Amino acid sequence: MKPIKLFYLKACPYCQKALSYIDELKKREGFGNPEIEMIEESEEPEVADSYDYYYVPTFYVDGEKVHEGAATFEEIEAVFRKAEARE
Is the previous residue joined to 57 through a cis bond, with omega within 30 degrees of 0? Predict the structure, then answer.
């Protein structure tokens, strides 16, 4: 599985929802436990500033931005599927 990088803010309600979707997906058979590097942008601004995005949550898979902003369960699932895809 390709690594996932998640930029988020603790106080962001959309981020909290995305984190709950991630927890739910990790419990589902077939997704296993993907490697997710979680970067709280207010705690690591130098890292966050080195990436091109405006809204959180933002997901990168293998270095490529695949989702930015409020997300549905299906969109988070698509991030997981992109991470598991073999190219």
Answer: yes
